[in-house]
Write a structure and sequence with these properties.
The complex is a heterodimer of chains A (254) and B (202). In chain A, the strands form two sheets. Chain A has an eight-stranded parallel β-barrel, surrounded by six helices. In chain A, strands 13-14 form a two-stranded antiparallel ribbon. Chain A is globular, with a radius of gyration of 17 Å. Chain A has 254 residues and is of the alpha/beta class. Chain A has one domain: Aldolase class I (TIM Barrel). The longest helix of chain A is centred in the middle third of the chain and has 11 residues. Chain B is of the alpha/beta class and 202 residues long. Chain B is built from six helices and 13 strands. In chain B, strands 1, 2, 3, 4, 5, 6, 8, 10, 11, 12 and 13 form an eleven-stranded mixed beta sheet that branches. Chain B has a two-stranded antiparallel sheet with strand order 7-9. In chain B, strand 12 and strand 13 form a beta hairpin. The longest helix of chain B has 16 residues. Chain B is globular. The chains are: A alpha/beta (254), B alpha/beta (202). Chains A and B meet through helix 6 of A and helix 1, strand 7 and strand 9 of B.
């Protein structure tokens, strides 16, 4: 049986690892390669790395950094941040990355999804949407680290991305980012039933119990988290962690 | 020497990293010269079937590979789409496969709401085989694909369940194929790659 994927998310800024709260207030966490080595030892399911400055600063993906990460990483790696062209996606995948994640580029130029999917296959194209709750119900997508709202309806966008060949959708819940308040179950239900590609939720996980609740209701699903795997305690002391084999079995228990 | 075929597709460095750590000699082979003295060959692959076949045909390595595999019986392992290319054809495209194996690659038969691609860690059931020795009973490996070998194909040595039963590792003589990604599957994957090198260098 296919297991749900439990995925640490690492955010890179100025070549260092950071963690944000509600997409701001970032805290320095350490050296990305060092974190990857620790996650190797912990045998994590997958690793996702986002360069959170690339799109906002209008820079291209830092291939040198990605190359080092990919060489170190012994599990599947997804990279996102600043990818705007098919050529960039291809060169990143050629460095040994399994999946490339598009966000603002997918919204500005949806054709890019299908251009990449045709060449490298759907399985390597991920679209990441950052979402925020609307004041009177429903959700809106955002780009540029939560600063630009997307006009189109969230579910309409997702259907469009899926039809163009996205092989996975990651939804990042801005309201819950770094808050450790638990995942938004209603949002997960709505998204999961709207999608027929693998779906990964990110934002809010506080404990392994939060993960277990989502697995129980929605497996197979991807569960991504930042704070949970890089901080310990309410003072956010940096400590990289990940459930061990026995702990994981408990999370998967129905 | 293990030759990792470099025809512009697949995560060749991930294999190199593992063999480096295991101190097993290997080379990335993009030319006939680099390929022809290999004791074992890894044929990686990602992307769509037709695109991968086109890339391999354009690489100029096709005839050498055919000769090494079919006549000289050099051990080879195809990974993911690299395995699928060994079949005659695929539901995914219209290109001819390498046809080293008399079978067709099928799309998942999704009667219920299983997301595609099949993405993540899944358990294998397997038969005794030199490349699977030392694995625990139901090892978990990483999958990322939408097409697969049928589980009742006669040379299947390991299966996994997702919507339907799939053939995920095959062995026919010197030809091996694995649908999941040993290069990204932690210890279980490393064991398989190490075993393959032992078979090749035996």
């Amino acid at each position: 049986m296919l297991k749900s994927r439990i995925i640490p998310v690492l955010l890179i800024r100025d070549k260092g690892l950071v963690k944000t709260t509600k997409f701001s207030d970032d805290k320095y966490v350490g050296d990305p390669l060092n974190a990857v080595r620790i996650f190797n030892e912990k045998e994590v399911d997958e690793l996702t790395v986002f360069d959170i400055d690339a799109t906002v600063n209008g820079t291209v993906p830092d291939l040198k950094v990605i190359e080092h990460l990919a060489a170190e990483c012994r599990m599947p790696l997804c990279y996102g941040g600043g990818i705007k062209t098919l050529e960039q996606a291809q060169s990143i995948l050629a460095l040994g990355v399994e999946k490339v994640a598009l966000s603002s580029a997918a919204i500005e130029n949806p054709q890019l999804i299908s251009d990449i999917a045709t060449q490298v296959g759907n399985q390597s194209v991920v679209v990441v949407l950052d979402v925020k709750k609307k004041l009177f119900g429903g959700y809106k997508a955002y780009t540029h680290n939560g600063t630009k709202q997307v006009k189109k309806d969230l579910f309409e966008l997702l259907r469009e991305f899926q039809a163009l060949g996205a092989g996975e959708i990651i939804v990042n819940n801005i309201d819950l980012d770094g808050t450790l308040k638990g995942y938004d179950q209603q949002l997960i239900s709505n998204l999961k039933s709207a999608l027929n590609v693998p779906f990964t939720i990110c934002g809010g996980a506080c404990s392994y119990d939060d993960i277990r609740k989502v697995v129980r209701g929605h497996t197979p699903i991807g569960l991504a988290a930042g704070s949970l795997f890089v901080f310990k305690g309410k003072y956010r002391a940096v400590l990289i962690s990940y459930p061990n084999k026995a702990e994981k079995e408990l999370l998967y228990k129905m | 020497m293990i030759a990792i075929v470099d025809y512009g597709l697949g995560n060749i460095r991930a294999f190199g990293n593992i063999y480096n750590r295991l101190n097993i000699p290997f080379e990335y082979a993009s030319t006939i010269d680099a390929l022809k003295d290999a004791s074992g060959i890894i044929l990686p692959g990602v992307g769509s079937f037709d695109y991968a076949m086109n890339k391999l045909n354009e690489s100029g390595l096709r005839d050498t590979l055919d000769d090494l595999v079919l006549n000289k019986k050099v051990p080879i392992i195809g990974i993911c789409v690299g395995m699928q290319m060994m079949a005659k054809r695929s539901d995914e495209g219209s290109a001819d496969g390498l046809a080293w194996l008399d079978t067709t690659v099928r799309k998942f038969d999704l009667k219920e709401s299983y997301p595609l691609p099949h993405m993540g860690w899944n358990q294998l059931s397997f038969l005794d085989n030199p490349i699977l020795k030392g694995l625990e009973k139901n090892p978990e490996l990483y999958f990322l694909h939408s097409y697969h070998f049928e589980s009742d194909y006669e040379h299947v040595i390991a299966t996994a369940e997702y919507a339907n039963s799939i053939g995920c590792i095959i062995n026919k003589g010197n030809i091996f194929g694995i649908q999941c990604h040993p290069e990204k599957s932690h210890q279980a994957g490393i064991t398989i790659l190490k075993n393959f090198a032992e078979v090749a260098n035996a």
